[in-house]
Amino acid sequence: MQKAHRLKRLVEERTRQAFSEKGFQPLDLTNVTVSKLDIHIKDSCAHVTFPALICESPDNPEQKFMIPLSPEKTSAVATALIASAEQVKKETE
Question: If pLDDT is split at 50, 70 and 90, which confidence band does 1 have?
């Protein structure tokens, strides 16, 4: 069990390092939520509901990020995640 945990942490560290070398800031996805936003303009208020990804910085867990998605983008991301997960599953079997 300890060996598997150490291997997992090594892979996570190397993955973050590879992303950083390519100029990306790695984030840990911690949740998916449906958010509501009220936009007040003059005497009216518009309500916007959207799905969002909740992430945090692995270097600073107190730093959190919300990535809002449109319904179309959410569907595309979900489809891509499922396809990617299936590909990884096939490659690791």
Answer: low
